[in-house]
Amino acid sequence: MEEDKVLCLPRLSQVAVCGGTHGNELSGVYLVRELLKAKKNVTKQEDEEEEAVPLLMVLSHPLQQCFRYIDTDLNRCFTHASLSGPMSGMTPYEIIRARQLNTMLGPKGSHGAVDLVCDLHNTTANMGLCLITYSDCDWICLHIFRHLQANIPLRYIHFDVSNKESYSLDSVGKHGFAMEIGPQPHGVVRSNIYMAMKAGVQHMLDWVQSFNSGSTFEEGFVDVFTMVKHIDYPRDSETRTITAAIHPQLQDQDFCLLRPGGPLFQTFSGETLRYKGDEPLYPFFINECAYYEKGIALSLARKRQVMCKGIVWPLRYIHNA
């Protein structure tokens, strides 16, 4: 590859893998516990040999007792407003914890923030393995995705939200993403889902080690699903209770194109309600259990191709200096 087509990016000096941000999403909880256990068993020599990927393992919600949260959703507490607003005796526990995590991994937006945050999540939706980010031009995240996709089935989801308004734990790092996998019921750990997440994390760490060793990663196209909008369930105008469920033909069809006129909901009296959008879009987080309280029945995304630029950490230039 021609040198002028390669971006020289800084070494990833610290990577954080976080689990349990939602206490009932158990794959990440058990995987971080396993990583912490393995870390205790390595010798000093082995630790030095693995220094190419300095790894910080974090159980994000230490009060977890298989509850999603105590007072409020921790994974919505990392906006600049939440991290910098006034505190009182009535401040929700998750706001307090978010500030602790921001101190540990950030501060958000600062030079001292960890280089990469990988936050582990489960979904009840039939989404398989996904990386969810706030950027479609973060070359580190995109190249990690390309490496993972070469080894395991994977999708890249983009939420077009500014850094100031980005709300999840992964936004604290210089680079970051949520590694989301399903379907898995909340409060349950399924071996196949756990092992797929474990493989995803290991492939991510392998890529980081390769990058930190001075490997060059060539440019290439990536399919990106950019979130366009959320759709709520039909609701009673007075009680606000839902009056329909996801249509059987749509259930479990995450990332299958939903066309205008396609079945969307089925009312509890049996009527089919159809999608009235103007363009075909890709549904995901279909019937996610945790999103009932957020008024989200599913999200819709537009699929497009993004050119991922070639990158390198210029180790060889340092050695030649």
- Within the CATH hierarchy, at the fold level, what is the topology of the largest domain? Aminopeptidase
Structural class category: alpha/beta
- Helix-strand topology string: EEHHEHHEEHEEHEEEEEEEEH
The quaternary organization reads as single chain
**Which CATH architecture of the largest domain is right?**
3-Layer(aba) Sandwich
Look at the structure and give the mean pLDDT: 93
Report the CATH superfamily of the largest domain.
Zn peptidases
* Parts with pLDDT < 50 across at least 5 consecutive residues: 317-321
Share of residues in strands = 15-25%
- As a whole number of angstroms, the C-alpha radius of gyration is 21 Å
CATH class of the largest domain: Alpha Beta
Approximate shape: globular
- The total count of helices amounts to 7
Task: Give an account of the 3D structure.
The protein is α/β, with parallel strands linked by helices and 321 residues long. The chain has helices at residues 26-41, 44-49, 80-84, 93-105, 139-149, 191-212, 315-320; strands spanning 6-8, 15-19, 55-59, 116-122, 128-133, 155-158, 175-182, 216-217, 220-231, 244-246, 263-267, 272-274, 282-284, 298-308, 310-312. The strands form three sheets. It has a nine-stranded mixed β-sheet with strand order 3-2-4-7-5-6-9-14-13, with helices on both faces.
Describe how the helices and strands are arranged.
Layout: E1 6-8, E2 15-19, H1 26-41, H2 44-49, E3 55-59, H3 80-84, H4 93-105, E4 116-122, E5 128-133, H5 139-149, E6 155-158, E7 175-182, H6 191-212, E8 216-217, E9 220-231, E10 244-246, E11 263-267, E12 272-274, E13 282-284, E14 298-308, E15 310-312, H7 315-320
Parallel strand pairs: 1-15, 2-3, 2-4, 4-7, 5-6, 6-9
Antiparallel strand pairs: 5-7, 8-15, 9-14, 10-11, 11-12, 13-14
